[in-house]
Amino acid sequence: MRAVQITEYGDPSVLTITDVTLPAPGNGQVLVDVRAAALNPLDIKLRSGAAHSLYPCARARPPGL
């Protein structure tokens, strides 16, 4: 599946679209097909580095909490 990930702080150009492994649901879990997702103001602050003390960007991660 494709996912948008943040790998470093910066403007929107630091967002990358990557292929990631489709997660396998465990017992009692379901896999949901997400077609669209929203971002909130905290996502923008995390991407820009303005909130790095709350959530350091030590590894690639998708936007959203």
How is this fold's topology laid out?
Elements: E1 2-6, E2 15-19, H1 41-48
Antiparallel strand pairs: 1-2
Spatial strand order of the main sheet:
1-2
Rg measurement, Å: 13 Å
The string of secondary-structure elements, in order, is EEH
Q: Give average pLDDT, whole number.
A: 82
Q: Helix share of residues?
A: 10-25%
Total discrete domains: 1
Structural class: alpha+beta
Description:
There is one protein chain. The chain contains 1 helix and 2 strands. Strand 1 and strand 2 form a beta hairpin. With 65 residues, it is of the alpha+beta class. Strands 1-2 form a two-stranded antiparallel sheet. The chain is elongated and about 40 Å long. It has one domain.
Keywords:
alpha+beta; two-stranded antiparallel sheet
Brief write-up:
With 65 residues, this protein is an alpha+beta fold. The protein contains one helix and two strands, in the order ββα.
